[in-house]
Amino acid sequence: MIDIQNQSDYRNIEIEKVGVKNIKYPIIVLDRKNKTQQTVATINMYVNLPHHFKGTHMSRFIEILNEYRGRINLQTLYTILDEMKEKLDAKSAHLEVEFPYFIEKEAPVSKEKSLMEYTCRFCASHEKERDMYIEVNVPITTLCPCSKEISRGGAHSQRGKASVKLRFRKFVWIENIIRHIEESASSEVYSLLKRSDEKYITEEAYSNPVFVEDVVRNIAERLDADQNITWFSVEVENFESIHNHSAYAFVEKKN
User: Cα–Cα distance between 54 and 58 in angstroms, integer?
Assistant: First the structure.
């Protein structure tokens, strides 16, 4: 059969990334408490395409993914990238694996247990050099220090989202990054709370007011103290409860 993808293209334009997106695929990730955790990832796979090729072979991405079924993790990402480059005759390859990660959390007073979801990503690429980072997204609660200071009673609070990306020398636990983030905010977010828990969390947040600037600095300070982490970026967005905008802060540690 005629292979259209391998035919020549006359436009002389190289494509930096071509591939497949939004593949839903079961994966197994390491879990500090339970050893492993099964989840479903959304995977993007790309390679470069030289200017003289008309197209790439999309089916080969799925074939490679199927070869590593049950073995898609931090330890195998570079191996998968190398196989993508070889089978697709490419100079660069990119792999993005996004997945929900669940941790069983215990409410602070009632001790009710429930599963909390965190969105995580493994991102790896191999061009001239190999590169990999992980991303962890964590919902948080913040209480405004200014509102507390100027109000006779109460203060406005809101839910926010902290996104941490980091590179590392050796393995890192997702749970450790989550703890760094949650302990840097006014309070944690839970999926199940009783009234006694709500009272506790409300008072905890009131006694620990933080601006969005405080949160990124708190997280950065914790990450910077970890010698295993070589680079990080911290992004925090507060979905303001009394303003028609979000508050935002970003900080990055250079390599």
Answer: 13
